[in-house]
Amino acid sequence: MENNKKLRIGLIGTGFMARTHSNGYNRVKNFFPELEFSPVLKAVCSRNGEKVKAFAEQWGYESTETDWRAVVARDDIDAVDICTPNDMHAEIAIAAAEAGKMVLCEKPLARTLAEAKQMVDAIEKAGVKNTVWYNYRRVPAVTLAKQIVDSGKLGRIFHYRANFLQDWTINASLPQGGAATWRLDADAAGSGVTGDLLAHCIDTAMWLNGGIKDVSAVTETFIKERVHQSTGKMQKVSIDDACAFFCHFDNGSLGLFESTRYARGHKALYTFEINGENASIRWDLHDLNRLEYFDNADDSIVKGWSSIHVTDGDQPYMDKWWVPGLSIGYEHTFVHQVADFLKSLERGGVCSPNFREALETQKVCQAVLESASAGSWKNTDVEWRKKQETEKEAMLSEEV
Amino acid sequence: MENNKKLRIGLIGTGFMARTHSNGYNRVKNFFPELEFSPVLKAVCSRNGEKVKAFAEQWGYESTETDWRAVVARDDIDAVDICTPNDMHAEIAIAAAEAGKMVLCEKPLARTLAEAKQMVDAIEKAGVKNTVWYNYRRVPAVTLAKQIVDSGKLGRIFHYRANFLQDWTINASLPQGGAATWRLDADAAGSGVTGDLLAHCIDTAMWLNGGIKDVSAVTETFIKERVHQSTGKMQKVSIDDACAFFCHFDNGSLGLFESTRYARGHKALYTFEINGENASIRWDLHDLNRLEYFDNADDSIVKGWSSIHVTDGDQPYMDKWWVPGLSIGYEHTFVHQVADFLKSLERGGVCSPNFREALETQKVCQAVLESASAGSWKNTDVEWRKKQETEKEAMLSEEV
Amino acid sequence: MENNKKLRIGLIGTGFMARTHSNGYNRVKNFFPELEFSPVLKAVCSRNGEKVKAFAEQWGYESTETDWRAVVARDDIDAVDICTPNDMHAEIAIAAAEAGKMVLCEKPLARTLAEAKQMVDAIEKAGVKNTVWYNYRRVPAVTLAKQIVDSGKLGRIFHYRANFLQDWTINASLPQGGAATWRLDADAAGSGVTGDLLAHCIDTAMWLNGGIKDVSAVTETFIKERVHQSTGKMQKVSIDDACAFFCHFDNGSLGLFESTRYARGHKALYTFEINGENASIRWDLHDLNRLEYFDNADDSIVKGWSSIHVTDGDQPYMDKWWVPGLSIGYEHTFVHQVADFLKSLERGGVCSPNFREALETQKVCQAVLESASAGSWKNTDVEWRKKQETEKEAMLSEEV
Amino acid sequence: MENNKKLRIGLIGTGFMARTHSNGYNRVKNFFPELEFSPVLKAVCSRNGEKVKAFAEQWGYESTETDWRAVVARDDIDAVDICTPNDMHAEIAIAAAEAGKMVLCEKPLARTLAEAKQMVDAIEKAGVKNTVWYNYRRVPAVTLAKQIVDSGKLGRIFHYRANFLQDWTINASLPQGGAATWRLDADAAGSGVTGDLLAHCIDTAMWLNGGIKDVSAVTETFIKERVHQSTGKMQKVSIDDACAFFCHFDNGSLGLFESTRYARGHKALYTFEINGENASIRWDLHDLNRLEYFDNADDSIVKGWSSIHVTDGDQPYMDKWWVPGLSIGYEHTFVHQVADFLKSLERGGVCSPNFREALETQKVCQAVLESASAGSWKNTDVEWRKKQETEKEAMLSEEV
Questions:
Q1: What is the pairing mode between strands D254-260 and D157-165?
Q2: Locate the Gfo/Idh/MocA-like oxidoreductase N-terminal domain: which residues (chains A, B, C, D) (predicted)?
Q3: Does C351 share its domain with C329?
């Protein structure tokens, strides 16, 4: 870390996530001016020199690189932010850690559990600050859900269910591989919806409801062959188009998860619901400012599902934005994660999820894929409880 | 009244409302078996002899008549139920009262305030039991709203707003007059949406929120000429296609009402909302089993609009039906009104709204039409408070 | 069958379902007067003589019995309607069939697949009319879903998902066994949510989306011991409190089903959704008059989920009821099933689902329970396609 | 205008609106990089020197001023952005125009019609670019509504209704006057909800549905006295707490508007609905990414209200943000208005609404207040049609 409380960022990648992270860095001090640290957009890197220059100009990066190794090697960079396709995560993260850089890695942590373990080893050996961009934890309504869960209001938990439904790959003429559709290519992505979408659901689930012990899964690939961008030829599709699994949580509750890119009419319908003995909670990304809450303690004749428009100043993060009733959106979750990362520099603590915590999600993903392949239950070896007991989270919302 | 605790009904009319009332009589003892009195479907009457026979067979009436005077004259009939177009209400009701019959009159009470007053005079002079079918009071969710209001939970009331939006008369080729479209003919109906739809809104409003002091209204007739059924010729349309008004309630709150048959996409969207200092309520006929409730006393971070699915046994009337979660529908409101009428025979009290109370609604309707015509505010001369203090309502739901 | 086109009913049972069926018989000719056949409530039977007399009086049965064998033996009864706990279904149905009676059996058909097979054998040997009360097919919105599916608008189907969530058994002091809580006793019920709730979901699913080939399931019993009504002692709970399963349909789509009685805040949340290549459908029992529909063929900038209020005269069954916008409720599904049964007498055809079709649902339930027990996939041996090709359904809605 | 295509901003004010505008300037080139012009945050001004310095640092202004006249006088400023309480709008705008500055003025344009006219005169005499921040036009769902209306799909319009409901002033101990509550002081604000909230509704309404000819209004002040910040004494409250009005539009449709700050449970519930002969539209600020649309041309059995999640790349402005399904929020409307203002510099045209158009809204507000005071209808003298025919709007969304 430099003097002057600057966090000098080197960003690898110029795609969708590169935009959301850059926006996070650019906005954070307008809305969290009390933070001591400030991000500085030192460099952005992409193999395509023209594209990276345009990106740098658009987002205000001071310089560009076309080889990520150059970013890792630069002395004027404190933190490497990895926004590449998944097949580059491990190599870059390990090199960055070894070079003493902080690492902020886009999710999922890696393509495979083996890669993820190497990354955690490297990060922990280097002792550098790190975080993984499971951004949905920092939707204010989701953070509020966490506060309600932590308050104990739900009582014994019986059920957790989550869905992440999309419809963008129904068209059979969509290719696999390449810049726009690498998510359809298992070599680049590791898996299909499991790593892309269910990983989000699993991260939120374990954060809210604790460790997942074992899983039983099914996967499906509806369109068996697609043209590959790199070869121009029809090739077997290697990813999972859809995946569903049940699981047991450490707390005895039953989990049910489903994800697909073939749910016509749903663009990004990430929903979750928790049913406790005394209260239930549900949330939906399409209406991300709302949390629905059922409290069985209410007077019986007026008991119902309450639709909470999470835009008040005493709700998580919302004192930073506008006034009650005025919505924020998807991108704000990244601003919140940047803010919490800066806070962790200032006051210590983990900007959760860190690599170690993201490894637990990776374990579940791996078990899900193996279970689907074997047609039987799989243990996950998740060690959630231990982790939770020993680490302190840095979240600005927790101070409210 | 006969011995044996029978209520022998003579029904005048065979249209839509004749069906809803008949269904009410037929079902009531299946669901309210504890009532001492039972309805007996003694006679149904319509000028069309063939139609009336078919109706009698379908609904189980013991006999038919083609002249309503014959019904009024029959000794074996205790109560006359008036389901004719509005232009016959006064004449039949007055004759029935003079013959010592109980009278159950479809709403609105009359075409005009003058007619309504004569009816009330006749009914009160005769001292016969009477009720007017403002059925929406007996939607369980609406009755629950009344219970919440009466509990004082809302505090000082600031606003009351109600809409009744339909779209069935947009087609310019729809005629006026005749059996199916008499509601488009002011001679038969008295007025357009004011007497047909706003009358419902006004009845509910005064029941929930007290008397309406004065009104300022606007009306509109979008389609100026329609063929008249009786003449086959284009004639000026004499009804109001749409009507809106503001008002002051006796309790100081501001009211806003709107009704139309030209709101494309809305079939029967009757909604109301009450905003109090401490809590608010809203309801919607399209989802009639739900009541939405906002309680400002809730813990601030989980405060929201609660969607109450009013199907539990401790909610109004619902112990009579199925199990929690299972909806009832529109027709059940008439079953409830029959049940409450039977209860009023058994235990005394008014099966509200009675003619006197419906007269107050008529006063508001009249003031609305006059205000729209004059373009200025009008007093209503409503005497709500006095009435409420002196009469006891018979509602089975109140015993819960 | 008697002369005179009467269907003389002998009803066994006086519980919740006895009420819904009795209401169906009582209402049907008011709303479907064109039907040639009429139900006659000849006898109702229950071991409790006092209770059965009260029930008979409330619902209009001509006589009572306290031994179901007496009902089966009576010459003046054409059809036996079985509303007992599940443990009596097989014995009564087989005896009634052997006595040449038509049989209308409450769902699920039986406790076990073995029982169900014996029932189908008996019914088919006797050649008597039969139906099983999977009533949700006849919610107008669900029937509309079937019409949309049959129209081919959805294209290739990718996903089917259904939930049936309740919360009524969370209280640990609720006993098992006995009149009110026999559903918690596997001896009486056969299983827990699988036969009670998932059976409904499976019936609808196969009707809409074809046969289920294989399943992988999980079950959970959250409260392990409850007092048994008959012994007054704490005993191991033998039913499944919750059950989830995935499946493959014959058409290649992936199914996901979940049911529980521990989802706090949900009274009877039966929902299903179908995702096709070109369109999707979803439905929710709590708002049973609505169907949600997404049509990908819509102009892209106005594409969305359409909320269809299924109350128009050209929508299934709705020409029989009120006017557009006015809701019907849960009980109407039974009226519709009675109407379709009467129609099947008049015009031939099956009042679906019949015993044979309900057997297919039983096969899936059995496979689900076995899969959960084994922790592995199970084939169902469902023979859906064959059946569908050979039988003609009698549904009044299909003539619209 | 300077060379270099910079738009050098001088912002007056540091309150809520100063934040939303500053955010708009800061973000616009990240999301609209193709625009030739860039905003430069040259100076921010507030009487409170400490506060203005903190604001400048937070938002990146190059310099600060404590006297707005200094801003107007500076040569290095191209445009003055007015974010003061309403009582300063006229004086600053006129001075800025006279100094040849472009003017971007927060809504409402002025406290009174007289002030507004002077402002328009000054602006038009100076011939400087100008805009008024009626930001809700640039919610993508609202802009989509405009596109649908302009397409003619609605046919003849019958009804327009809008509400803006808040609940933030129910507490009687809230003072009037001062930095936080100047909106409760008519001297500072001009009026209460009429200028604050209904002005938004009126601007949108005339944009979507054309000129408003005449109005009939009612206002209410529920809390008659509040402590004034400046004196510390109880004083008569001079603003309207609530206001409702009907109106006739030039196109013959009927309008109904309501606004209040006493609708418990509603934080910022701005809703509007248009009912046309062939289709209807409605929108709600609490779910601002959605537009609801009813198209009567749909096949009758699947006709319903479509909930359009306006987040696709072919919907207004949304190609600039994320991917389908991912929401944006309130603040984005200001980014859009800045983008459209920059576009108007580059390609000509009006960044609507300009002062002239905002004057028409002011005329309606004035007529509303006068009508409420007189208890009778008032003409508005709005000249909407003429304006619309002669000016070209610059909206980036229109090029889609």
A1: parallel
A2: 7-132
A3: yes
Q: Find out whether B127 and B206 touch, Cβ atoms under 8 Å.
A: no
pLDDT digits (tens, 9 = 90+) for C305-353: 999 999 999 999 999 999 999 999 999 999 999 999 999 999 999 999 9
Of C168, C268, C323, the CB nearest to B326: C268
Nearest-CA distance B277 → chain D (Å): 6
Mean pLDDT over each residue of chain C, to the nearest integer: 95
- The reply to whether B273 and B188 lie within a common domain is yes
Residue-wise DSSP of D81-94: EE-S-GGGHHHHHH
Check which CATH number belongs to the domain holding B205 and give it. Answer: 3.30.360.10
Query: Is B264 in contact with D246 (Cβ distance < 8 A)?
Result: no
Q: Is A142 on the interface with B (CB under 8 A)?
A: no
- In chain B the first and final C-alpha atoms are separated, in Å, by 29
pTM here is: 0.96
- C-alpha span between D259 and C70 (Å, rounded): 70
Tokens coding C243: 């059950």
Residues of chain A with Cβ-Cβ distance to D20 below 8 Å are: 322
**Subunits that touch chain A (at least 3 Cβ pairs < 8 angstroms)?**
B, C, D
Beta bridge mates, B212: B249
How far apart CA B275 and CA B281 sit, in angstroms, is: 7
A24: domain CATH number is 3.40.50.720
Q: Please state whether B61 falls in left (phi above 0), alpha (psi between -120 and 50) or beta.
A: beta
Residue A218 token pair? 């099914």
One domain for residues C131 and C154? no
Distance CA B172, CA B184 (A): 12
Q: Which two tokens stand for residue D58?
A: 């937070």
Smallest CA-to-CA distance from D10 within D92, D81, D103 is with: D81
Q: Is 80 exceeded by the pLDDT of residue B400?
A: no
Q: Two tokens at D318?
A: 């949304």
Same domain, C170 and C318: yes
Last residue of a domain, one of A112, A135, A158: A135
My answer on whether B275 and B388 are in the same domain is: yes
Q: What's the rounded Cα separation, in Å, for the pair B83 and B207?
A: 23
Residue B281 shares a structural domain with residue B330: yes
A394 and A296 in a single domain? The answer is yes
Nearest to D331 by CA among D53, D10, D27: D27
Residues of B in contact with D167 (CB under 8 A): 275
Same domain (yes/no): D92, D180: no
pLDDT of residue D3: 45
Are the beta carbons of B345 and B129 closer than 8 angstroms? yes
Helices (DSSP H) in chain D: which residue ranges?
16-31, 49-59, 68-73, 89-98, 113-126, 140-150, 178-181, 186-189, 193, 199-209, 332-347, 355-374, 384-390
Domain count within chain D: 2
- Domain-terminating residue out of C108, C135, C162: C135
Tell me if D22 and A30 make a contact (CB, 8 A cut-off): yes
Hey, which chains touch B, using 3+ CB pairs under 8 Å? Answer: A, C, D
Residue written as token pair 């177009």: B85
Residue A148 and residue A280: Cα distance in Å, rounded? 10
Q: Which of residues 53-92 of C touch B (CB under 8 A)?
A: 54, 57-60
Q: Please write the tens of the pLDDT for every residue from C149-200.
A: 999 999 999 999 999 999 999 999 999 998 889 999 999 999 999 999 999 9
Q: Using a CB–CB cutoff of 8 Å, tell me whether D151 touches chain C.
A: no
- Whether the per-residue pLDDT at D46 is higher than 50: the answer is yes
Choose among A240, A275, A246: nearest CA to A258. Answer: A246
Q: How much is the ipTM here?
A: 0.96
Mutation to test the C interface, candidates D292, D301, D318, most C Cβ within 10 Å: D301
Distances (CA, A) of B327 to B145, B382, C52, C168, C308: 17, 36, 27, 17, 17
| Residue D314 domain boundaries | 136-399
